[in-house]
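Summary of Year 1 activities. Much of the first year was spent building the evaluation harness for sequence design. The harness presents a backbone, in tokenized form, and records the residue chosen at every position. We chose the following record to illustrate the format because it has been used consistently in internal testing since the harness was completed.
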């Protein structure tokens, strides 16, 4: 137990502070710093084994946590989920060396601290079994019901990446999945947030590149989502752990400087707590008073935004007063302002004007008796619970778990999600969507609040203009805007809105619409998106013509018949893939650069191949067979051929496997009639099949795998491993194949100047299940970035 970094923290439970569950942050406490190596004392180096709590002990802690808030005494579902997960993960270990089951258990504990329902916690325990083991979603549904299966499926889909796309495309697609999943059931994303938090707690076992990548992704996406959902318990720790890996010098410098005067600061806070408690008691206000040092990321954010050093930051300390009612909040504020001198302009009333995530509190910054500034936050116990747990505090589920219903406050809290889903529909380009989300989620952007003429409050990013305000009301107001009044006076359209401004927009039906110059003036992502949408709509006809010309030119260069691939049944696949309403929208998107012509034509050909595979006519089979001078038996009868392959309509013909894509049992396959060589079997996603000229496609023929003894035959396959170039990488990769008793028949290595490498391995396996198993193990090898199969 002595090989730990012990932190006094209120952000998560203090009952488990070992590596796999510790709250390793500086949020509410002081890290003892080792000045020689700039690491917190007790932090382990990468190659040391990880001490861990026994799984059964963690399970007991999980049940204890649930019993603290859940009225039920029946925990059989959670026990069963734990036992199933432990069995499925029994041979798996994390990079730290600890049993893999510890990870889902810790995710479950985090969710129990958020007081989530039993279905959510059961799904958390099972969240990796579909992806990492042989268990199917149907089995989960039979054992635990549709609700748990739905949650596991949702988390699994968020985890699965499409490695055929570039990095930006992958990240954008996963964002799209996440927001759609949130709209269907918010619990899916709560599991994902808990999963990310535990992964950050054990991030020291990953490579430095992976640490930076995960920390940046957390600050860009996950932490802002936790903030939008109002879950400060998660957000604070996600922020601080991300800062630790993104800016280690800043993190440890803050830790060291705050630790230097630890005793003085603790005494300062203790004195304020005593003074405030005494005054509350004297005023007859029943209050709980606690003090803390602000968490590291909050301090760092102020240093960046205000361009100040640590010594220049006003409110390193915060005192929180919890009372029973809103009336007591304002009464306590009066007592505090009598006791200490408030700093002008540093008072915020979030009770009267809640934040968009429904956070409520009174904030006031004061000068202590020795001239030291500090902040006091005053809120009710109910407000405090909402601030800590956010949407998890009040999201209501029916007893069956099959339905969910939010009250009006929670519905308002999710309004930002509806906005993001609108962006998803409007943004044709993945990079555009990704940039919109990251810009809107920017944690370093402060807010201003202003009022409509009727007194409604609007929250906008700091630096917003009347144009931003107009588009926050409605796109029609922004598009017809010709001027604005602030507090009754005419202002230029680039006026910077101040807190408390009352704004009225002047519109005209004669307005010709927004100017492109507005894009450089507005601050909010919402305004930029709506202005761009207007220009896309106005120029749609021009873009449609340009898009069609672009596609026709591309098809001509590639020898593809444009009219053949743009049939209505093939177009449907493109519309579904890119969530567009009609073919003109696709053409317009290509015309203004939102979609690449290669993307659209590639999807059309893929859809066409799938439809042709399902609907091969008797005439095509006859023609293909005549080309090969083979005998026709009955075109509708399936005959057995080599190695468990069934080829439709062909009898006694040689069958071989294509070396370009190396199909194995379990892959979707298609036959191709090769002159003088019989039938060659390809994967349906083989590049050579997808790019066949039209006059060759008639030689494709339906084929499928026949159920055979899995141990009777092996099949050659090939994978590409993208990895960091480090000593011992080849040995570690080979070890996985040795453990699985798989022979590597060839290996090809290439290294790049950026320190990465590509490894192409050919080996023999029995089928796709075996391939999935070995691939899953390879992904756990340190330094492996990505794995994909060759496809022609």
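For this record, the design step produced the sequence shown next.
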């Amino acid at each position: 137990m002595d090989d730990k970094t012990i932190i006094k923290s209120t952000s998560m439970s203090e009952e488990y502070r070992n590596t796999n569950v510790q709250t390793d942050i500086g949020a509410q406490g002081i890290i003892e710093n080792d000045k020689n190596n700039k690491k917190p004392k007790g932090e382990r180096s990468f190659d040391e084994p990880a001490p861990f709590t026994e799984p059964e002990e963690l399970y007991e802690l999980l049940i204890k946590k649930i019993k603290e808030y859940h009225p039920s005494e029946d925990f059989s579902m959670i026990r069963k989920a734990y036992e199933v997960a432990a069995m499925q993960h029994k041979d798996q270990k994390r990079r730290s060396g600890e049993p893999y089951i510890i990870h889902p258990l810790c995710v479950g504990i985090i969710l129990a601290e958020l007081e989530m329902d039993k279905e959510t916690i059961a799904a958390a325990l099972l969240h990796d079994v579909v992806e990492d083991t042989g268990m199917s979603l149907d089995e989960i549904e039979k054992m635990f019901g549709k609700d748990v299966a739905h949650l596991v499926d949702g988390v699994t889909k968020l985890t699965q990446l499409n490695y055929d796309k570039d990095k930006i495309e992958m990240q954008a697609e996963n964002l799209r999945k996440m927001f759609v999943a949130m709209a269907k059931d918010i619990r899916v994303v709560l599991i994902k947030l808990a999963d990310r938090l535990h992964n950050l707690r054990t991030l020291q076992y990953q490579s430095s590149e992976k640490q930076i990548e995960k920390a940046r992704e957390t600050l860009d996406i996950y932490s802002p989502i936790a903030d939008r959902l109002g879950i400060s318990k998660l957000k604070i720790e996600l922020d601080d752990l991300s800062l630790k890996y993104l800016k280690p010098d800043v993190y440890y410098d803050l830790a060291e400087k705050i630790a230097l005067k630890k005793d003085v600061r603790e005494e300062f806070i203790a004195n304020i707590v005593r003074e405030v408690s005494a005054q509350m008691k004297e005023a007859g206000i029943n209050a709980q008073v606690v003090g803390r040092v602000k968490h590291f990321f909050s301090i760092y954010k102020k240093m960046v935004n205000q361009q100040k050093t640590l010594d220049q930051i006003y409110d390193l300390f915060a005192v929180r007063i919890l009372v029973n009612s809103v009336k007591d909040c304002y009464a306590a504020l009066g007592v505090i302002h009598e006791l200490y001198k408030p700093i002008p302009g540093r008072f915020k009333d979030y009770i009267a004007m809640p934040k968009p995530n429904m956070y409520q509190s009174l904030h006031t910054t004061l000068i202590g008796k020795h001239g030291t500034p500090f902040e006091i936050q005053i809120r009710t116990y109910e407000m405090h619970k909402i601030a800590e747990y956010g949407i998890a505090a009040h999201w209501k589920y029916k007893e069956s778990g099959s339905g969910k219903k939010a009250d009006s406050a929670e519905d308002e809290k999710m309004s930002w999600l509806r906005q993001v889903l609108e962006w998803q529909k409007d943004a044709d380009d993945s990079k555009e969507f990704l940039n919109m989300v990251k810009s809107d989620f920017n944690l370093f952007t402060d807010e201003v609040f202003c009022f409509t003429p009727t007194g409604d409050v609007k929250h906008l990013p700091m630096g917003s203009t009347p144009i931003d305000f107009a588009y926050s009301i409605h796109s029609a107001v922004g598009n017809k805007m010709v001027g604005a009044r602030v507090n009754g006076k005419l202002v230029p359209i680039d006026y910077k809105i101040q807190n408390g401004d009352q704004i009225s927009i002047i519109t005209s039906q004669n307005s010709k619409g927004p100017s492109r110059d507005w894009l450089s003036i507005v601050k909010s992502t919402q305004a930029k998106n709506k202005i761009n949408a207007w220009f896309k709509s106005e120029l749609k006809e021009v873009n449609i013509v340009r898009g069609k010309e672009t596609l026709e030119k591309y098809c001509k260069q590639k020898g593809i018949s444009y009219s053949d691939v743009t049939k209505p049944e093939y177009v449907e696949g493109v519309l579904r893939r890119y969530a567009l309403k009609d073919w003109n929208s696709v053409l317009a998107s290509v015309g203004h650069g939102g979609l690449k012509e290669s993307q659209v034509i590639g999807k059309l050909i893929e859809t066409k191949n799938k439809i042709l595979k399902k609907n091969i006519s008797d005439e095509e089979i006859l023609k293909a067979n005549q080309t090969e001078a083979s005998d026709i038996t009955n075109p509708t009868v399936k005959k057995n051929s080599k190695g468990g392959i069934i080829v439709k309509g062909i009898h006694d013909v040689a069958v071989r496997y294509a070396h370009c894509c190396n199909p194995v049992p379990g892959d979707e396959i298609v036959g191709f009639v090769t002159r003088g060589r019989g039938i060659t079997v390809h994967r349906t996603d083989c590049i050579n099949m997808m790019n066949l000229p039209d006059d060759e496609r008639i030689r494709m023929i339906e084929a499928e795998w026949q159920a055979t003894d899995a141990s009777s035959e092996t099949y050659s396959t090939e994978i590409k491993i993208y990895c960091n170039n480090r000593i011992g990488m080849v040995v570690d990769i080979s070890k996985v194949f040795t453990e699985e008793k798989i022979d590597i028949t060839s290996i090809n290595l290439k290294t790049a100047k950026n320190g990465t490498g590509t490894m192409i391995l050919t080996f023999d396996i029995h089928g796709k299940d075996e391939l999935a198993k070995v691939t899953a193990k390879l992904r756990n090898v340190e330094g492996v970035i990505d794995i994909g199969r060759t496809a022609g």
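The longest helix spans residues 208-228. Quantitative recovery figures across the full test set are reported in Table 2.
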